[in-house]
Amino acid sequence: MTAANQTPEEPMGPGGLVLVDWAFAGDERDSGIIPGGVAETGAVIAGRRTYDTSVRWWGANGPTGEARLPVFVVSHGQPTEVPENGVYRFVDGIEAALAAAK
């Protein structure tokens, strides 16, 4: 999910971080919601544009951070540069991504 005008410099779009500011405002109850929810996920499916604009922020661990859940990226090919020891797998089509995530 992003705001309009997403770029690699602002992967959630200008002002888009307001969507998650509450989770990083310093209240321990709020800051535990995202990691706790992510830990229950099992896997993540992302589109190639989301990967391309977010990988510099996610790093090798992906969007789930220390949980290091597998990320299946729907893409017609693998980029030339992928973080070493990363959690990313590139699959051709949403059906393949869903099957792999299961």
Q: Which fold name fills CATH's third level, the topology?
A: Dihydrofolate Reductase, subunit A
Strand content: 5-15%
- Shape assignment: globular
Helix coverage percent: 25-40%
Short description:
The chain is of the alpha/beta class. It has helices at 28-31, 33-39, 48-58, 94-101, and strands at residues 44-47, 71-74, 88-91.
Helix/strand layout:
Layout: H1 28-31, H2 33-39, E1 44-47, H3 48-58, E2 71-74, E3 88-91, H4 94-101
Parallel strand pairs: 1-2, 2-3
Give a verbal description of the structure.
With 102 residues, the protein is an alpha/beta fold. Helix content is 29%, strand content 12%. The chain contains 4 helices and 3 strands. Strands 1-2-3 form a 3-stranded parallel beta sheet. Strand 1, helix 3 (48-58) and strand 2 (71-74) form a beta-alpha-beta unit. It is globular and about 40 Å long.
Which key terms come to mind for this protein?
single chain, 102 residues, alpha/beta, Dihydrofolate Reductase, subunit A, three-stranded parallel sheet
